[in-house]
Specification:
The chain is an alpha+beta fold and about 180 residues long. It folds into 2 domains: about 30 residues; about 130 residues, Immunoglobulin-like. About 15% of the residues lie in helices and about 30% in strands. The protein has a 6-stranded mixed sheet, with no helix packed on it. A 5-stranded mixed sheet has the order 2-11-10-4-5, with no helix packed on it. A hairpin with a 4-residue loop joins strand 8 and strand 9.
């Protein structure tokens, strides 16, 4: 202790009260951490959808954002954004999966040693990760996300069952 400092003299009841306040604060902090770490962005999603981006109900989403759906293994699907069904392009087979046709059903094979030229303005399906990704681009069916609320619908199905067994899930987000 410093010279001349007087130790704080607390009664038993004061010490008990201070201890209870400190304990309540610690319990509140721990409870907050547990709740925040157990709350997931996937809550309320169907079992076949592991994640979406932008998040459901997101506000102030940047206009250049991508729409992303992470499906369970063995699933595929098609995206509809603001009422426009988008062509889905399978990256592994380089073939079209969607019903809207603005690209050839199958792209020509690239020359050996060169990269494949992928169509723009389509939803890309990566079967290895079971993901659907759409990036708005000029000239695409959905060129950009303007400042308003947007509706995304994913129609998804097990690959082995085909699109006749499809389910749908919809969510909205708002661009600033």
């Amino acid at each position: 202790m410093q010279r001349g400092a007087v130790p704080l003299q607390l009664t038993v009841w004061q010490r008990l009260l201070v201890s209870m306040v400190v304990a309540a604060g610690l319990v509140g902090i721990i409870a907050g951490l547990v709740i925040s770490s157990s709350r997931s962005t996937t809550s309320g999603l169907p079992a076949a959808i592991e994640g979406i981006r932008p998040a459901r109900g997101a506000q102030a989403v940047p206009a250049q954002t991508d729409v992303f759906v992470d499906l369970a293994d063995g699933y595929t699907g098609v995206l509809t954004i603001d009422g426009v069904e988008l062509t889905t392009f399978d990256l592994s087979t380089q073939t079209e999966l969607g019903s809207v046709s603005s690209i050839p059903a199958t792209l020509p094979a690239p020359e050996p040693g060169s990269q494949a030229v992928l169509p723009k303005g389509v939803t890309y399906f990566d079967p290895g990760n079971a993901t659907l990704t759409y990036a708005p681009t000029p000239g695409a069916p959905v060129e950009k996300f303007d400042a308003r609320q947007h509706l995304v619908v994913v129609r998804y199905w097990k690959v082995v069952d085909g699109p006749s067994s499809a389910h749908t899930f919809a969510w909205q987000f708002t661009v600033f």
